[in-house]
Design goal:
Strand content: 25-35%
Oligomer: single chain
Helix content: 25-40%
Largest sheet: 4 strands, antiparallel
Low-confidence stretches: none
Order of helices and strands: EHEEHEH
Radius of gyration: 11 Å
Mean pLDDT: 90
Length: 85
C-alpha cells in the first residue's frame, strides 16, 4: 500500500465536475484507491462517495492506493488536482 498526504488546491472541489474527473482518473487504475479524511475512508472510484466527503480548499487529505499500479494512481490523481486549479 502507498499513501500520500495532499493539500487540496481546488477551490471548486465540492462541485460535481472536478470530483467526476478525479473519479474518472482513479477508475483508470486497477488499484484500490481511497481518500481518507478524519474518520471517513471513501472509495475514489465512487462518485457518490467522493461527493459526500464535503472537503474544502486548503484541507489536507490522505490518498491511499493498494495494487500493482498504486504509485502511478496516486501520482495521476495529484497531478490532476494540481493542474485543475
Amino acid at each position: 500500500m502507498t499513501a500520500q498526504t495532499f493539500t487540496i488546491e481546488l477551490p471548486n472541489f465540492r462541485e460535481a465536475r472536478p470530483v467526476a474527473e478525479i473519479v474518472q482518473t482513479a477508475s483508470q487504475y486497477e488499484s484500490e484507491i481511497y481518500f481518507v479524511s478524519g474518520n471517513k475512508k471513501i472509495n475514489a472510484k465512487s462518485i457518490m462517495g467522493m461527493m459526500s466527503l464535503g472537503l474544502c480548499n486548503d484541507e489536507e487529505i490522505e490518498i491511499q492506493a493498494d495494487g500493482k499500479d498504486e504509485a502511478e494512481a496516486i501520482k495521476a490523481i495529484i497531478k490532476y488536482m494540481r493542474s485543475a486549479v
